[in-house]
């Protein structure tokens, strides 16, 4: 437990309790987020990335989902045991979030300025003029042109990329230590994506906040992240520095995933795919969840879940093949 | 277009506010000698009674002016009380979900199954006739439909990311309901209010007719229509004139409501 870690997640377990049974959507996830680092959390749709983020924020959908076990330590203190009231103080100020779709991330009936004002006022309780000045400064920080005019405009008057910048401005207005970005560029078109990623990098460098960057796009990971955690069917299967993961992926799932990124495997003209489908998280098999699709599968893979083995500096993967 | 409807609404409001100054006659005093006179532009009409008289020889214009008072007060109060309660219940039920929603929405279902007229009659018997009874009765008729429609709207709204991000920012549930959900359903609420003004005026008329509303000598538009019903063949103006007033008011309010909605909706304010 070094003091470098601003966020430590330990054995986080979040299940959905449905009439059909228990969906083990996040099943023992552990990772560290270092101060000033961008950690990528990659995985395919439905592997539990977003639910991990919501569990950390403690904003699970009401009723069906519940976090059963685990610790989420923010600056050393477990926030899973905090009261809802204390949690509200933590959200926005110490840990914040950006969601995927800028179209619905802003309230359509309020101007940009009013929405920034809400976030800023909660923190500073300043006068109207001060807040307006701060709102304009916040827009300038996310590189929106003519911020003085934009504060009076409504969300529908802004483009998608612009809206996502505003969402970003609101998210970082409380100077959080941790920003969770849940596929922030997926809904933007490619040229805007690149601009937005560059902006996030600049902001990250300026503020020194740590970013948990959730995505399914390895290209984005390569550009943005220092380290990457690969998630499969509710568990993290491999975690390590980005360069190492790309050069020496150790877990068969990571290998297959990197091989299937178009243009990354040398001169492949056909798209490489992974056969089969992820297992149902309703009663998943006891062993390795990738066993059914894995080409190196051994008998014990089906019986017991593999331990995590170190395969290099800060690089570890959960696969029996890597064991002694 | 909004100016014409605004003018009609404003006229009706002025009639209601300045009734004692505007009315040429007493709305209650009977002059049986002058009963059932047609409006002045007919041969038998008299310039003393511009819009004619009813079966008791009361001046229809004066009753119309005073009637605006009762009708508008009842409409405003019933829509504020009934609509307001429906709005709150709809937001709370839709946003909170779970057991709260189940209980509130079963109450709404129960309210729908209960015949409003019967309940109003019951109220009139127990509480006595009067404005209060009328407002409570009509509010009970309104709130459930408001609650149901607003809840539907809220269900869709709370899925939107800005609600999730408000939570991320650390807003409380109450704050989200008040500052993020409420302003987004106000347009729907305005439309519901305008659409229901007609319902309220007609409900008021029906209840007054049944004796559960305002007691008879006081003029209300609904009561005036009801009173002329028996002689519609010979003295059509007794019913038709207040009927036209209701139509004009309801139509104007609806048109004005449409215009207002377009004005208020920032998505339509673009150009």
Give descriptors for this structure.
heterodimer, A: 324 residues, alpha/beta, Rossmann fold, eight-stranded mixed beta sheet, 12 helices, 12 strands, 33% helix, globular, B: 271 residues, mainly alpha, 0% strand
Describe the 3D structure:
The complex is a heterodimer of chains A (324) and B (271). Chain A is α/β, with parallel strands linked by helices and 324 residues long. Chain A folds into two domains: 5-94 and 178-276, P-loop containing nucleotide triphosphate hydrolases (Rossmann fold); 104-175. In chain A, 33% of the residues lie in helices and 25% in strands. Chain A is built from twelve helices and twelve strands. Chain A has helices at 49-57, 84-90, 102-105, 112-124, 128-141, 147-150, 160-172, 190-207, 218-224, 242-247, 252-259, 299-303, and strands spanning 5-18, 21-34, 38-42, 65-74, 77-78, 95-98, 178-182, 210-215, 227-232, 235-241, 308-312, 315-318. In chain A, the strands form two sheets. Chain A has an eight-stranded mixed beta sheet with strand order 6-7-8-3-9-10-12-11, sandwiched between helices. In chain A, helix 4 (112-124) crosses helix 5. The two termini of chain A are 25 Å apart. The model of chain A has no long low-confidence stretch (mean pLDDT 87). With 271 residues, chain B is an all-alpha fold. Chain B has a domain at 81-264: MetI-like (MetI-like fold). Helix content of chain B is 72%, strand content 0%. Chain B is built from ten helices and no strands. Chain B starts with a helix and ends in a 7-residue tail after the last helix. Chains A and B meet through helix 2, helix 4 and helix 7 of A and helix 7 and helix 8 of B.
């Amino acid at each position: 437990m070094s003091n470098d870690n601003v966020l430590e997640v330990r054995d986080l377990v979040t299940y959905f309790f449905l009439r059909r049974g228990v969906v083990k959507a996040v099943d023992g996830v552990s990772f560290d987020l270092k101060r000033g680092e961008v950690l990528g959390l990659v995985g395919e749709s439905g592997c539990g990335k977003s639910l991990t983020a919501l569990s950390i924020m403690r904003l699970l959908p009401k009723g069906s989902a519940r976090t059963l076990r685990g610790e989420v330590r923010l600056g050393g203190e477990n926030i899973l045991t905090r009261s809802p009231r204390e949690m509200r103080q933590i959200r926005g100020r110490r840990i914040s979030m950006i969601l995927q779709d800028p179209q619905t991330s802003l309230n359509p009936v309020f101007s940009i300025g009013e929405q920034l004002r809400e976030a800023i006022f909660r923190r500073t309780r300043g006068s109207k003029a001060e807040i307006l000045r701060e709102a304009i400064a916040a827009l300038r920080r996310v590189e929106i042109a003519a911020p003085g005019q934009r504060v009076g405009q409504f969300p529908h008057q802004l483009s998608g990329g612009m809206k996502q910048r505003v969402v970003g401005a609101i998210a970082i207005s409380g100077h959080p230590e941790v920003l969770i970005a849940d596929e922030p560029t997926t809904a933007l078109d490619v040229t805007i994506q690149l601009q937005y990623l560059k902006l996030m990098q600049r902001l990250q460098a300026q503020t020194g906040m740590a970013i948990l960057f959730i995505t399914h796009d390895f290209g984005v990971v390569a550009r943005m992240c220092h380290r990457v955690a690969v998630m499969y069917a509710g568990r993290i299967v491999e975690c390590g520095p980005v360069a190492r993961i790309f050069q020496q992926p150790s877990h068969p799932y990571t290998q297959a995933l990197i091989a299937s990124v178009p243009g990354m495997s040398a001169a492949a003209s056909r798209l490489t795919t992974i056969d089969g489908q992820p297992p149902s998280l309703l009663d998943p098999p006891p062993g390795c969840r990738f066993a059914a699709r894995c080409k190196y599968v051994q008998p014990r893979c089906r019986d017991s879940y593999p331990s995590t083995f170190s395969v290099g500096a800060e690089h570890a993967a959960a696969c029996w093949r890597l064991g002694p | 277009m909004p100016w014409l409807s605004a003018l009609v609404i404003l006229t009706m409001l002025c009639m209601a506010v300045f009734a004692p100054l505007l009315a040429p006659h007493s709305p209650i005093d009977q002059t049986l000698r002058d009963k059932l006179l047609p409006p002045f532009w007919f041969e038998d009409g008299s310039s003393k009674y511009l819009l004619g008289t009813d079966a008791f020889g009361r001046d229809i214009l004066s009753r119309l002016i005073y009637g605006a008072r009762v009708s508008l007060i009842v409409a405003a109060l019933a829509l504020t009380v009934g609509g307001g309660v429906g709005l709150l219940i709809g937001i709370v039920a839709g946003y909170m979900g779970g057991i709260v929603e189940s209980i509130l929405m079963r109450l709404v279902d129960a309210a729908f199954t209960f015949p409003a007229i019967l309940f109003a009659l019951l109220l009139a018997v127990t509480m006595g006739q009067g404005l209060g009874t009328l407002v409570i009765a009509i509010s009970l008729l309104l709130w459930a439909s408001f609650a149901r429609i607003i809840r539907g709207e809220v269900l869709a709204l709370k899925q939107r990311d800005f609600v999730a991000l408000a939570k991320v920012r650390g807003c409380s549930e109450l704050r989200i309901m008040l500052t993020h959900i409420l302003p987004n359903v106000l347009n729907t609420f305005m439309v519901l209010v305008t659409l229901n003004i007609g319902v309220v005026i007609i409900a008021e008329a029906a209840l007054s007719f049944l004796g559960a509303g305002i007691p008879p000598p006081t003029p209300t538009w609904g009561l005036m229509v009801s009173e002329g019903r028996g002689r519609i063949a010979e003295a059509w103006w007794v019913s038709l004139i207040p009927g036209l007033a209701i139509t004009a008011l309801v139509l104007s309010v609806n048109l004005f409501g449409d215009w207002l909605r377009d004005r208020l909706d920032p998505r339509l304010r673009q150009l």
